[in-house]
Amino acid sequence: MSDTPVTVLVDCDPGIDDALALFALVQWEKEGRVRFEAVSTVSGNLPLRYTATNAAFVLDKSGAGDIPVYLGADRPLSRTHLQFAEKIHGPDGLGGVYEEGHVDPDETVHGAIELARRVRKSAERSSVWILALGPLTNLAIAFALDPGLPDLLEGVLVMGGAFGAPGGNTTPWAEFNFAVDPEAVRRVCVSGARIFLIPLDVTHQVPFTERDLQRIETRTKSGRFALGLFQAGLHLQQRRGAHEMYLHDALAASALILPDLFQFHECEMEIGLCGDLAGASLVRSRRPGEEVRTNVSVAFGVEVSRARSFLLQTWGGGGASGF
Ligand code: RIB
Ligand code: CA
User: Whole-angstrom distance between the N-terminal and C-terminal Cα of the chain?
Assistant: First the structure.
């Protein structure tokens, strides 16, 4: 086992849960667990200009070094936007936490092009993972630009999909990231990349509530920033009459550090592309004797208490002991 930390490239659409995932990655990089190299952003929870500036702001407040942020796709490959998600993340995408005057994203190169370039370059010296926390538009573009990328990647860890019936959060059948750009999901699934999927079926097993606030020990300035994001997310849910919130992307990110938190199953996944089933993720069951063409490892189980404790300690800036 190489002692070189894996390189992680994040594609995201901050959003509060993306933001808490980015915070956690900065912590894990400080602990030498990962080499957090760069962020590409995509239109999703909010339009691209918000998700890109939010990512740069969050990295700055999280105490990241010079982790660059790039602007990627400002629209899906194949569909006009179903909807943004201000009701979950607020009009600024960060529950009102955003402040002007921080580091700007790099506008010199398209995020998908930079993602492709960095995968190829980093794979020369370490294992490389893409952590995809928004619609998969940038990944689909990167894989089209350089079809050799999937073979260079250790894996693609994706927050997305829903297999309950109905289990969606955007339509009865579709999870948001998949609903926004189902064609991108299709292209990534047939790319040959090793995909590990953390769907709503798992993230909805891990609620966070008001009671968790005192478990985020704010020993650090950056920890107080994470606490502010957490409180903002809860407040938005409480205004909608809910008592809990689900931090889908942060939970997905934890699989990079503690994959044994999750029970993965090899599946053959199809994606609905149009009509009422657009964005629906469907797992083909194997007929007797049929060879299943595995294209995705899907998590259907999670160690809830251990996952919650691990993330709450990480957000406190107290270091993740991986217990
Ligand atoms: O359905 C949840 C996913 O969609 C999360 O990644 C959230 O940030 C939104 O992008
Ligand atoms: Ca997201």
Answer: 20
